[in-house]
Amino acid sequence: MRNILAITLIFIFSLALFPANSPPLSKLAINEKTFQIKQKNEDIAVLMVHQAIRDNKLSSLRDHCLAYDFDEGSDKNYYIVDVREDKKYAICGGDPDTSVHLFRFKVDRQNLSLLTDAGTTDGSFYSVKK
Predict the structure, then answer these.
(1) CA–CA separation, 5 vs 105, rounded Å?
(2) What's the total number of domains in the chain?
(3) Are the C-beta atoms of residues 92 and 64 closer than 8 Å to each other?
(4) Are 83 and 59 in contact (CB under 8 A)?
(5) Sign of torsion, CA 64 98 80 43?
(6) Phi and psi angles of residue 82, each rounded to the nearest 5 degrees, phi first
(7) Can you tell which superkingdom this protein's organism belongs to (predicted)?
(8) Which of 65, 42, 39, 41 is nearest to 53 (CA)?
(9) Tens digits of per-residue pLDDT, 85-125?
């Protein structure tokens, strides 16, 4: 009787830990790996954009006065990075509740080449050095 009770308790606890509708552990591991790859792509793209802004003198704002909005899904060939003013720090000046759009970058998914619309009035993109 004691063994049946122990087995029943183990079974109940295993149901609580691993509900029937939860994905298999291998799928969870794959999802975690996919998240890590996506996060790495985002980090690389934003760092490349940041460096290109400095190297090509596209903004005179301090580093902590720039914000980067990453969009991985809107274009199948490019990662899109929207560069905005970030005024949450007093040194940046202005209203901390506003974030003015400055320009956008496209980072090629295959070769990581950079395009930007910085300084254009019609929103057309041109190539910049990495």
Answers:
(1) 63
(2) 1
(3) yes
(4) yes
(5) positive
(6) -90, 125
(7) Bacteria
(8) 65
(9) 998 888 998 888 888 999 999 999 889 999 999 999 998 99
